[in-house]
C-alpha cells in the first residue's frame, strides 16, 4: 500500500524497507571489512599502513596488526598488543597525526621465510604544498602470513637523526 503521511514522507511497504536496509547493511559491512583487511602480500603492507595513516581513523590499523604485535613509536617506548597499538595511534591522530599526510617510497622487502618478511620503507610526511618534507622517517615492519593476509607482527618508526650514532 503506497501513500503519503502528513509529513510528506512516502509510505513504503515493509518488504522494500527491509530489502533496502539489508542491501545498505551488506554494503557497509563489505566496506568495513575491506578497510580492515590484511594486505595480500608483504609488499602491500607499506601502502596499507600509509592508507590507514591517511584515513586518520585508528580502526583502519586493526586489520594490519597481529593480536600480539609490538610497536616502537619512539626509541623510549614499546607497545604490546593490537589494542594498545591502536589506542596509541588513535591518540596520536587526535593530537597531531590527524593533521598529517604520509607517503611511502623506497619500499624494500626481505623474505625471512615463506611466512615472514621484513619490510623497510621511507615514510615521509607531505607539506601543505604536497611536497615531501625532508628527511623522511623510516618504518621497519616484521610481517607474518596469516590465513587472511599479511599482518604486522612488529614495527618501529624511526625519526630522522633520532638514533644516529656519534662519529668516532
UniProtKB/TrEMBL annotation:
Domain SnoaL-like: from-to ranges: 52-153
Gene3D superfamilies reported in the protein's UniProt record: 3.10.450.50
One of the Pfam families matching this protein, by short name: SnoaL_4
Signal peptide, first to last residue: 1-37
InterPro entries named among the record's database cross-references: NTF2-like_dom_sf (IPR032710), SnoaL-like (IPR037401), Steroid_delta5-4_isomerase (IPR011944)
Keyword annotations of the record: Signal
Record keyword Signal present: yes
Superkingdom: Bacteria
Protein name: SnoaL-like domain-containing protein
Amino acid at each position: 500500500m503506497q501513500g503519503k503521511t502528513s509529513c510528506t514522507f512516502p509510505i513504503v511497504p515493509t518488504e522494500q524497507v527491509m530489502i533496502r536496509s539489508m542491501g545498505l547493511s551488506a554494503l557497509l559491512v563489505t566496506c568495513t571489512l575491506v578497510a580492515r583487511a590484511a594486505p595480500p602480500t608483504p609488499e602491500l603492507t607499506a601502502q596499507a599502513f600509509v592508507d590507514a595513516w591517511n584515513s586518520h581513523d585508528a580502526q583502519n590499523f586493526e586489520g594490519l596488526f597481529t593480536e600480539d604485535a609490538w610497536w616502537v613509536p619512539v626509541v623510549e617506548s614499546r607497545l604490546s598488543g593490537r589494542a594498545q597499538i591502536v589506542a596509541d595511534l588513535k591518540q596520536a591522530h587526535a593530537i597531531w597525526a590527524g593533521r598529517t599526510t604520509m607517503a611511502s617510497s623506497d619500499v624494500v622487502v626481505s623474505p625471512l621465510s615463506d611466512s615472514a618478511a621484513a619490510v623497510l620503507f621511507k615514510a615521509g610526511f607531505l607539506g601543505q604544498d604536497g611536497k615531501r618534507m625532508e628527511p623522511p622517517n623510516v618504518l621497519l615492519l616484521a610481517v607474518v602470513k596469516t590465513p587472511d593476509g599479511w599482518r604486522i607482527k612488529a614495527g618501529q618508526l624511526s625519526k630522522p637523526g633520532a638514533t644516529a650514532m656519534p662519529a668516532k
